[in-house]
Amino acid sequence: MGLLDRLVVFLKIKKRQASVLVVGLDNSGKSTILNHFKPDEQKSIEIVPTIGFSVETFKIKNLNLTAFDMSGQGRYRNLWEHYYQDAQGIIFVIDSTDALRMVVVKDELELLLQHKDIKNRSVPILFFANKMDLRDALSSVKVSHALGLDSLCTKSWHICSSNAVTGEGVREGLEWLSEQIQLNLSNN
Amino acid sequence: MYARKDRKDDDDSAQGGNKWSGERSSVLQEARVFNKSPLDPKKCSQVLTKLLYLLNQGEKLSAAEATDTFFAMTRLFQSSDVMLRRLVYLGIKELASTANDVIIVTSSLTKDMTGKEQLYRAPAIRALCKIADAGTLQAVERYMKQAIVDKNGSVASGALVSCLHLLNQGCADIVRRWPNEVQEALNSDDAMVQYHALGLLYQIRMNDKLAVSKLISKYTKYNVKSPYALCLLIKLTCKMIEDEGYGTDCPMFNFVESCLRHKNEMVVYEAAHCIVNMKSTGPSEAGRAVAVLQLFLSSPKAMLRFAAVRTLNRVACNHPKIVMSCNIDLEQLISGTNRSIATLAITTLLKTASNESSVERLMKQIESFMTEISDEFKVVVVESIQSLCEKFPNKQGTMMGFLAKMLREDGGFEYKKAIVDTIIDIIHSNEDKMEIGLGHLCEFIEDCEHTSLAVKILSLLATKGPKTKNPSKYVRFIYNRLILENAQVRAASVSALAQIGSECPNLTNNVIVLLERSLMDEDDEVRDRAAYYLKILQKGNTDLFTQLTLSIHGLESALCEYLKSDMSVPFDASQITYEPPVKQAKPAAPLAVPEKKISPGKNVYQEEVLEVPEFAQLGNVFRTMPPIELTEPETEYVVKVVKHIFGEHVVLQFNCTNTVNDQLLENVSVEPVAMNGGWKAVHTIPIKKLGYQETASCFVCFQQPDLLDGAYNSGFTNTLKFTVKDCDPTTGEPDDNDGYPDEYVLEVFEVSLSDFIQKVANVDFVNSWEELGPENELEDTFVLSAYSSLQQAIEKIQDFLGMHACERSDQVPEGKQTHVLILAGTFVNGGRILVRARLAHDPTMTQGVTMNMTVRSNDESLPELILTSLA
After folding, report:
1. A6 occurs within a structural domain
2. pLDDT of residue A14
């Protein structure tokens, strides 16, 4: 990076660029969360299951984020790993009403953490305990217990409960993530 | 704007392209740039272009490589660069078949095809259909239906074409659910959309004849605007007319004819092209179409001239008289600057040429620009020369010289092959020209880079050489090959030498000396052959040059058996099943006049029947008819009959197919019962077992009744007899019960006189007629009341007698009221038959065609037989 570029970044004239990966089981609300960051005229009213992935771009706090919204269906989950390599942040969306599949979530999370493209890098992980408005939703604390996040000390992580339909809690979470990514970028 | 950029991009890749060829690994390395963040769209576009170039050059990626590249490429979806995105679509299409998990881009493509950016939509749909399977297609069905009826023409076209592809990708069921949308697209104003919609609609209904005919009759009435759609409609209509055998007076044909007056040239051409190519077209209809093409011949557009002359060239054989009317226009085209058009024009003229002097003039003209045209057209010229040789035997000398000249010039394999085939054809048909032809061929192999041609010529030299006055000349040519050529040619030379040596006793010793030199050849095959033939020649035993009359399979199994035994007794070849040599299946009787038999060729059926050991002693097959269907194509059991005519027997081969998946048929046989008492079945071979979807043949052999008695004509009623065993549809294993016998009545077929007559072409009719003389001549006059035109009558007579019309006498000039039809053929007993029929038809009378027929033969009973059969 040339001197001028540094200056530009320092003065925050030019926005930085980063890509994040959005993963989680099917029907956890990944596409719905991202739908909030689209400009109004592009918002889809009806969210259909994603097949494969789709790309969304938006900006949070001077950071241009490119989000890879991955499909959560069982047959596509093994395709997540193709995108680990260049992800500078991960958003892991959990359906907090689905206590039954919490073990599946845990498995997938462990697989992700053990992957060679994630293991040795500092990638901030943002957990959304989604669907908090529903009656039988687990609290974010309970979710983090269920996933064993307490013992996760190699990565910086944050969990917040959210309601993707209304957008409650979503922006706060993303702001945390963008701070973490900016921190990482300026460290490098 | 984007389109222009696009083209520029393509140009760049085409010019700079060569430097990337063979650099696939480096390009794959460069593809890592897709993973960089932030993306550099310009760089990525370049790399992707290189990658596409490599793939289009036929570079194959392994599944792992393709998958890696594919997933790297999917990251490019984050860029909003339009050019890059469109390149990504192309990349997806290219890699869709090799990479795994291509399904990953489904959502991204769906987003693009429904998005606002119009430039993305059509290519996204096309890419989507490449990666979609039945499952994902269902998920995006809604979007596809919307896209089909989209206002934007390119999007609708893209969707329709994608549907066409999907039909063949196993998603037919889903596509078939959208006929309403496709119908709506057919009403679009966009010419392309209309065309694609019609194409798709036809593909969807293709297997349903009724639906297709409804489709055609609906849209021929409805005013289709798009010229493309109209062309397609014309094609479909003509196919329908052909398939259903409609005449030229049906409304469908009227529609095609009305298109001759359309204002768009493309439509007019298509209509004319289809009309002249239809079988049912009579001279008057073809005349109108040719008139249109004639107008095109003088068009300022080269494309139209080319199309017209090409079509005329094709139909020149069927309607020479009509095409002749264009001769003046064609003559003008010869001197034009466009060589492709000139070549076609001149070959068309050659085909229609009526006298020998004009042929010579045309040949001179061809010669003048032979060097300027491409191989493809040279082949066209050679083909037309071949047909000329058949027509004007006297001109064969000139042609031969011309061909030899062409042979000396440079040219590709196809071209040389066409020339060599033509020369060989002349050699076979004309004894006088044999030596000259062989000389030209010898000269050709002196410097021939095509091994297969050299081998072919060598074997011809071996068979024809000994019949010439001076075979030793050919020994020298062949021996030269033995010194100079590759192993394959050397091996062929050895065989050829040996054959000449064995057939010309005075050369045997010389050949032995020459062969001895090949004993030291470096190639095994050549050495083996040389040693083998030397032994035989030294023994003076030439029997082994005749055809091997053993069944190869039988010999193989017998030898295997022998090897397993203790080999105490010498191998006995006499116990192997005898099989007549298949290669001699054509009647062997040599005829004095050079004649060429038009047999349907050695077809598969003929080989099948010759493999049956029981029929081996029947001799050679005289004729094998094309199969006749005895059932409707979609019944439980499908049976076709093939008639094989032998010297004294008739073998009926029934090809049976079982289409019931839960039945196993055993002991399947067909019982034909002749309506004429003279026919006696002597042998029946049933099928032992016939499973689901299997086809096998059972045979019935009849002793021929006394043909000369008039008993040859007979209908056969047929019953299929078999034992049914129920079986498991999945495994095909029969249940263990015994099954029950059942019968199935088949349709009737006939054996008629024409089956026993072989067509003979290339006869010098007048000479043969004189030669046969009036000893066995009969004459009779008939009134053929059923026919209303000469052409119709001629076709029926030809059909009935199964003989060949000589000198194109089956073509009647329009408006003529009398005509002479001359026919030639060979009867099953080897007797030659020549027929001269004078036909007269008065259009004002209603009573039909009057015919005076004279038959000559070298067999005294044949003329009577022919005439009584007609009566």
Report:
1. no
2. 57
Is residue A90's pLDDT more than 90? yes
- Tell whether the model's pLDDT for residue B16 goes beyond 50: no
- Give the mean pLDDT of B493-522: 82
With beta carbons less than 8 A apart as the criterion, state whether B148 and B115 touch: no
Domain residue limits at A183: 15-45+53-60+77-187
Place of tokens 């009737």: B748
Chain A residues within 8 A of B75 when measuring between CB atoms:
68, 83, 86
Whether the ω angle into residue B38 lies within 30 degrees of 0, i.e. cis, is yes
Q: What is the CATH number of the domain that holds A177?
A: 3.40.50.300
Distance in angstroms (rounded) separating the CA atoms of residues B642 and B625: 6
pLDDT at B546 over 60: no
Could you give the percent of chain B with pLDDT greater than 90? 6
Do the Cβ atoms of B105 and A52 come within 8 Å? yes
B-chain CB neighbours of A76 within 8 Å are 103-104
Q: Between A and B, how many residue pairs show a Cβ–Cβ distance under 8 A?
A: 56
| A180 is an active site residue | no
In a domain, A126, yes or no: yes
What are the structural domains, with CATH classification, of chain B? Answer: 1-100 (1.25.10.10), 227-278 (no CATH), 457-546 (1.25.10), 550-565+573-583 (no CATH), 604-751 (2.60.40.1480), 756-870 (3.30.310.10)
User: B825 pLDDT band (50/70/90 cuts)?
Assistant: confident
Q: Do B103 and A76 make contact, defined as CB atoms within 8 angstroms? A: yes
Share of chain B above pLDDT 70, in %: 88
Contacts of A18 in chain B (CB under 8 A): 37
Residue A133 is assigned to a ligand binding site: yes
Q: Tally the domains of chain A.
A: 1
- Name the burial class of residue B203, with classes exposed (0-12), middle (13-18) and buried (19+) by CB atoms within 10 angstroms of its CB: middle
Does residue A82 fall inside a structural domain?
A: yes
Residue A70 lies in a domain: no
Which pLDDT value is given to residue A125?
Answer: 92
Q: Establish whether A119 is an annotated binding residue.
A: no
- Prediction ipTM score: 0.85
Provide the sign of the torsion angle of the four alpha carbons B516, B520, B521, B526, taken in this order. positive
Residue B549: band (very low, low, confident or very high) from pLDDT cuts 50, 70, 90: low
| Spatial CA neighbour of B831 closest among B800, B858, B794, B855 | B858
**Are B103 and A51 in contact (CB < 8 Å)?**
yes
> Quick check: B78 and A68 CB within 8 A?
yes
Residue B639 in this model has a pLDDT that exceeds 70? yes
**Which SS3 state, helix, strand or coil, does residue B224 take?**
coil
Helix or strand run (H / E) with residue B70: helix B63-74
Residues B536-549, mean pLDDT to the nearest whole number = 62
List the structure tokens of B451. Answer: 């091994």
Nearest to B586 by CA among B606, B604, B605: B606
Residue B26 C-alpha, separation from nearest chain A C-alpha, in angstroms: 21
